[in-house]
Design goal:
By secondary structure, the protein is an alpha+beta fold. It has 2 domains: about 130 residues, no CATH class; about 260 residues, no CATH class. A hairpin with a 2-residue loop joins strand 1 and strand 2. Helix 8 packs across helix 14 and helix 13 crosses helix 14. It binds zinc ion. The site of zinc ion has 6 residues, from loops.
Length: about 475
């Protein structure tokens, strides 16, 4: 199970371990649990009312689990007999009952695990619970976003980014134990990365209340939208920083990613040129279009391949639908195709847009192409190569790409955030202490009033607790 949600692990553990030891329980307490073998296999019978204390202990978590996930593994099981029967006896034949496989590319590429309904009771309950947690967080963020007047509110941005983080590649950097040393994270980078992964406000980005109104206009409000548009603001998640040309972040992430792609492609033994010049000048001498990567000898059909890398945002104007997380990448893909496809074909080249998003999504086309290159290279060396080996190389590649996107994006946010703090510090403060003070400690707030009213009681409590401690000590 690894490190996951402790609360869910805890809930799942008790009923599951009781089921696991039911054979021993039946031996030790034959009057309570009987396991008989008849024609249809094992039959478990539990005298429900014989051990009410134990029964309630098991049924409590069971009921909580059922409440959280009514359609889960425990659906319709209302007694100990039913639960033990289903999981003790059913465990063996359930495992053979393979679920109808959904043909997901990600399973094929080794990025996603196979979905099966079998498996241990504990992991099934745990998966149910975690799924439920995800669904309720989804709903909560959606509700908050819907309450706002505009889609560009912090809550709206948060919801869209949340959706764009739910995929098989965005979080891969977390699984990279042996990242290349260039992708190891400094402590502040790690904090920023975790904030990005969980879309919580970044502690290094100035909060609105830390800056007075004039200063805020100069630092936190961005001019990148142009003079007659609604001005954009540096949001607490750093999403604007990642998308804003003024900060230079998009280029930085793009360029680093291009270099990573070149390194990975060269490990396959491919001859790769970075930003080839004059690729199209036989068609038009003034043509200065320079795609990012040229591969002279790709595996498969002999035609040379050009890749052009793009890292899209996830909350921009190209995202019309919240739930359609691939929309920005798809739109960029089509734009790139329109820009290069025709001229590439005229030059005998295959053009492939390599589209990523700064949340770590990878567009299907480039994902599929990379997988095929890895596969063909490995099959060339060993025609009998196991598909698992190909998958693990693919996982390594996507992990590296995810780590590069994450690290450069997090570093960029940190750099800009530090810059904003410097900017604010370089002007003398004019804010009053009330603007800078934390809400909870504000002397003019309700909290403070209540604290003062309770003071007498608090003093009494303090003496009481301390005298207890002294007598115990
Ligand atoms: Zn901007």
């Amino acid at each position: 199970m690894g490190l996951g949600c402790m609360k869910s692990v805890h809930l799942a553990a008790f009923p599951a371990s009781m089921v696991a030891v039911s054979a021993y329980l039946a031996k030790a307490y034959p009057s309570w649990i009987q396991i008989q073998v008849n024609n249809e296999g094992h039959e478990v019978r539990v005298m429900e009312d014989l051990e009410p204390f134990t029964r309630d202990q098991i049924m409590n978590p069971v009921n909580i689990i059922k409440q959280k996930m009514p359609q889960g593994a425990l659906q319709g099981l209302d007694s100990l007999s039913a639960i033990f029967q289903q999981f003790f006896v059913g465990a063996s034949h359930l495992q053979n009952q393979q679920q109808e496989q959904v043909q997901d590319q990600n399973v094929l590429y080794g990025l996603a695990g196979k979905i099966s309904k079998g498996g241990l009771l504990q992991s099934r309950i745990y998966n149910d619970l975690v799924k439920n947690l995800g669904l309720s967080l989804h709903q909560e963020l959606k509700n908050k976003a819907d309450e706002q007047a505009t889609r560009d509110s912090d809550e709206g941005v948060r919801f869209r980014v949340f959706l764009s983080l739910q995929n098989y590649t965005s979080g891969m950097w977390l699984l990279l134990y042996n990242a290349h040393k260039a992708y190891k994270l400094a402590p502040d980078e790690f904090i920023t990365s975790c904030c990005r992964r969980n879309i919580v406000g970044n502690p290094f980005i100035l909060k609105d209340k830390q800056v007075n109104a004039d200063m805020r206009q100069q630092t936190m409000v961005c001019t990148c939208a142009g003079p007659n548009r609604t001005q954009l603001r540096v949001d607490p998640f750093g999403i604007h920083i990642l998308q804003c040309p003024n900060f230079g972040t998009p280029t930085r992430v793009h360029d680093t990613l291009v270099h990573m792609c070149v390194i990975l492609l060269r490990t396959l033994g491919l001859a790769v040129s970075l930003e080839p010049i004059g690729l199209f000048d036989n068609v038009n001498a003034d043509d200065n279009r320079r795609p990012d990567i040229l591969i002279h000898n790709p595996y498969g059909e002999g035609q040379r391949v050009i890749l052009d890398v793009a890292v899209t945002g996830v909350v921009g104007r190209s995202r019309c639908s919240d739930e359609d997380v691939d929309q920005p990448m798809r739109i960029r893909f089509n734009q790139k195709k329109a820009k290069y496809d025709h001229i590439a074909r005229a030059n005998g080249l295959t053009f492939i847009p390599a589209i990523f998003s700064h949340t770590g999504q990878i567009h299907d086309t480039i994902k599929g192409w990379m997988f095929n290159q890895i596969k063909m290279k490995m099959e060339l060396h060993d025609p009998q190569v196991q598909s698992d080996k190909i998958k693990s190389v693919m996982r390594y590649w996507t992990g590296q790409l995810s780590a590069v996107i994450n690290k450069t994006a997090s570093r960029a946010i940190l750099a800009v955030a530090a810059n904003l703090v410097d900017k604010v510090n370089s002007t003398p403060p004019t804010a009053s202490s009330s603007d800078q003070c934390e809400d909870i400690m504000d002397a003019n707030q309700e909290n403070a009033q209540r604290f003062m009213e309770d003071m007498e009681l608090l003093v009494l409590n303090q003496d009481h607790t301390q005298s207890n401690l002294r007598s115990e000590g």
